[in-house]
Amino acid sequence: MTGQVVPHEVQGGGSERCLLLHNWFGDRTSFGPMREHLNGDAFSYAFLDCRGYGEARDMPGAFTMEEAAGDALAVADRLGWETFSVVGHSMGAKAAQLMLLDAPSRVRSIIGVSPVPASGFPMDEETWGLFAGAAENPGNRRAIIDNTTGGRHDDAWLDAMVSRSVERSSPAAFRAYLDSWAREDFHERVEGNQVPVLLVAGAHDPALGGEAMESTWLRWYPHAELDVFPDAGHYAPEESPEALAVAVERFLGR
Questions:
Q1: Could you tell me the sign of the dihedral formed by the alpha carbons of 236, 238, 242, 246, in that order?
Q2: Is 14 exposed, middle or buried (0-12, 13-18, 19+ CB in 10 A)?
Q3: What number of other Cβ atoms are within 10 A of residue 124's Cβ?
Q4: Pairing mode, if any, of strands 43-48 and 8-11?
Q5: CB neighbours (10 Å) of residue 176?
Q6: What is the pLDDT of residues 76-109, one digit of tens each?
Q7: Which domains does the chain show, CATH number per domain?
Q8: 107-113 and 16-21 strand pairing
Q9: pTM of the model
Q10: What is the 3-state secondary structure (H, E, C) of 27-92?
């Protein structure tokens, strides 16, 4: 840890505050398509880059979910946000849960988008090889993105996703985060937590879709609810950006 605050940017000036943590394949720019649909009068949003990604690509670190959670809390401190909600996309949702455990009085609610559960994401040997090899092999990244969006997108869309992922993440960080989000299990620490939770899953996501939410998040969080997007796979911020913005603000506005 260097004591640096990770790069971030704030959109809006409303009283309802929210931190957003990106997925394994994207930096904070992955939320770009949904940002034009957000209400900056009612809400304030802080978009973060995890260490090893985006503007933090060259920042040193351990590249763990615990570190990402600590970095996000440090951003909230820098902004003077005593309480806030957290949107976590995929691996970002695992870090959001650690924020909840570290600072339960500060996290008002969690919105998990295709969210990795606190138990991690078990994989067989072949799948693990595909994911681990994605750090150095863009073809692996493409195969994973294609699979987790139901094989619905054209070459141009897939190529753009892979290109951004390669350009905006360091291989070392990308590989290290995998061990943390996929293999670490702390679900017993969150069981029964009373925080309000919104889960957004894509109908075309075979990895972290509705069934996965039913067997994990919805069992452990008594006040969790599930919204399945019919036109999305694993990447709702890019596949269904307007619908996601509406769902987020409807939930936060309560």
A1: positive
A2: middle
A3: 8
A4: antiparallel
A5: 18
A6: 999 999 999 999 999 999 999 999 999 999 999 9
A7: 8-252 (3.40.50.1820)
A8: unpaired
A9: 0.97
A10: CHHHHHHHHCCCCCCCEEEEEECCCCEHHHCCCCCCCCHHHHHHHHHHHHHHHCCCCEEEEEECHH
